[in-house]
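Subgroup meeting minutes
Present: P.N., E.W., G.H.
Scribe: E.W.

1. P.N. recapped why we're keeping a running log of single-chain structure predictions: easier to compare across weeks, and new members can see raw inputs and outputs side by side.
2. G.H. added today's entry (314 aa).
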Amino acid sequence: MRALGQQVADLLPEGGELDDLLERTASSGQIYTCELQLAQSESIGQEYVLDCRASLLGAPIDGATRLLEMTDVTQRTRINRENALISQHGTGRQMIRQLAHEIKNPLGGLRGAAQLLARQLDSDDLKEYTSVIISEADRLASLVDTLLGPGGPPNKQATNIHELLDHVARLTAAEYGERVVIDRNYDPGLPLLALDRDLVIQALLNLVKNAVAAMPAGGRLLLRTRAANNFMIGETRHRAVASIEIEDNGSGIARDLQASIFYPLVTNRVDGTGLGLPVAQEIVSRHAGLIEFESRPGRTVFFVRLPISGDGSG
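Output recorded in log:
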């Protein structure tokens, strides 16, 4: 209703796809469509995704010659993205398990052979080579274990998520100092959640480290919590979920990576392993939750959605 009586130019961003859409319609007389993303602003309370359809009017109305029809598809787009993330996580987990099987068996044989060979060697110089083989085999085995994620069921206990966020904030401040300014915006009404404290701290740390890496010259990190009612995660509707949001004002995620960042070993950082996000998604998935994100230059937000049970224990 806030848009009634206002000029389209005052509500929508200047230039870009929408102007091109209207110009092509005016010059050719054809009907054109596009998808438009509206960033959050003072005039627009939240981010929206709109399907836009431009056509010529049969006759001018109050000087207007074109008709612009906009349909809000934000919810549909969010559900599609969420389903894609769930599918991506399942595919990534299957890839990891297949990869682990193919790597760990020969690694064990390689390490054992190097140990046997070392016992037969008299030269310390030659033994140094077998030590390198054993060390590298152990490193690769550790990498595979990291890819597989933590084993066993989560040790869930009633947990105050804000205490975990404060702990992560202290660790981040100790590591990065004044380079990163950390703000907090908590919903005091969130109940305790049934969480594995150590696992969730690891997931949050992975997300925070990714956020800091996107701000190499320093920046601002916002830790925010909210409650959302009647929320779908995959095919399950939850009466309430906790949304833990980690926002940074860094460079954003490259558009060509956004569809695959939760796959293992996907990264655009020289020093990155591409494991932080898949491991975080696996941990949250084991709590029946999901990690989603929005990203553009200057604002990236990761949303950790965790179900809230009706008994006050998460």
